[in-house]
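Justification of resources, computational component.

The compute hours requested in this renewal are based largely on the per-chain cost of generating structure records like the one below. Each record pairs the submitted sequence with a full structure-token output. That output is archived, and it is also reused by downstream analysis tasks.
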Amino acid sequence: MKLSLSNGSPLYLEIRQSSLRALHGKENLQLGLERAENGRLSAVCRERLVLALQNLLKRKSWQPRVRAICAIAARGVSLRRLSLPASPKEELNRLLNLQIESEFPLPPDALAWGYRRLDAEGALARQDLLVVAVKKEVLEEYSEILSRCGVNPQFTLSALARTSLCDQTSGACALLDIGRKQSELISFENSNPVSIRILNWGGEHITHAIEQSLGVGREEAEKLKIQWDNGRATDGELGKTIHAAILSSLDSLAATIKTNWTGQKLYLTGRSTRYKDMPAQLSQRLGPSIECERLESIPGDGSSAAILGLQKSESPLLLRLKESKGDDAQAGSSSWRSVIHTLFTSKGDDSADRVAPWKWAALAALLAFSSLAFPYVEAFLLKNRLAKQLQVIKRDKARLPVIDRELGFLQHLKNTQPPYIDALSIMSIAAQSGTRIDSLSMNRRGELSLRGSMRGSQQVTEFRSKLIQSGFFSAVSVDEQSPSPDRQKFTVRITAQWKPIPAREHAAIDPTPEELEKMKNRAKEGGQFGPPPGMEMPPGMMPPGAMPPGVPGPKPPSMRPSPSSSMPAEFSRRYGMSMDGKGSIVRSTNPPSSQIKSSEGAIEIRRE
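The structure output for this chain reads:
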């Protein structure tokens, strides 16, 4: 079973005022059209037309939309020959829009129009163009119906399509298509269309003439006319009467043609031209200088001259419903968008649904090949970059042993260094206002010994409790506690033991937010002169910040004596500190002793 991706050949349509003909492959369709008073198709006719076209196309939902070329009748069509200055193709559409706006009664936006060059491109300083225009609403109705059938329509003029059947149109000639109620006459000069006319004469005039001559009904007159066209009529009185009626109607046709055209040759198409003596009789009535020729190439498969002309024409004049990027491709734009558009669309059409099946297959094959070749192309293009990255990785790999040794050394220092700073931080947090440390000693075994003074036994108890609660010390004991002679402070000696490293990982070393706030408040209170917290001010002592009357307050910073630029030699030698030329204190990297003593107290850190 062969799977077809498309519906084969395009759809050819001829739309007349009262009928429609369609040809798709070997299938054809003929339908009558019913119109309302405003000229639009009735709702019943529209639905019947959609159903008939769908049955003709037999299009599946997964198949692409069918491309259709529609030839419309000349009613309401305006044909003009315009002469414009020579200009680049990119400017031609803009100039045409301006010229159409001045030549036609409607603006370009309300028209469906197309053009064709009549002279050789670039031959003269001016260029002649044939412009065909019709009201856009006429084609929009047909386009909507065809879109419902899965068709993408293109519109052209039936009269121009029929000219493809003429052998030559040089000189002054014309083509007459005789319809049922009216005929279309298009005239040429030197192979270029000049004008198009609607003649109020058709095959019904012959039927009416036979009906009047024989006094029969319309249906009987139509049968007699068809028999006469097929050559089966008798030569008796009936035949003479029918022949006379036909000649009488041809007299009126010849008079109408003379009013609208003068030339040397007239081509005849249409169903009514099958009367074998019609070309000769019509030529006799038009004049001996005019030759009439019937186009005999129309087969009996239901096709019309317009549909055969569409099949034969290579580049019909198309009417555009809207501006699109496809117009630039038809104008010859060399941009990359136009090249891609022309490559993947059918004959410059701007619809992606009209892409030929083999082009879809070629595009799919190209995408599949690109997806398979992309990894190899990427590796080839990025080969140099990857080689450089590998060199950098190899160079960094040689440094890994050095980095491992340095990391191990730093981790050893971190794990083995005594936590002197942590212990001091915990004691500073636990200490309250008025606490004084006279001496402090710690060693690597975690033994701590502290001697100092506190304000009362309650402070001693709270200090010990905070050290235990911190989780850093395993044992804290007060070995000695004795009050001073004035009972204002207690001299204490405290010993403690650090916990092992795994046990003190969760110790609370940093102060809590509440403790930080208390330290800030304590620092603020320490900037004023006054008794320690909890003590009342002695009688006669002034409150902090107050000065007796007449006694000047504290001097401003500018009047205070600046620190000496030198430091006593004894102080510098004892504490390993000195002062540079800018007044900054610098501590020596090799202090003279591991024990620092002063008149206020001493802190000693022993390493054993």
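The two ends are 99 Å apart (CA to CA). The chain has a mean pLDDT of 77.
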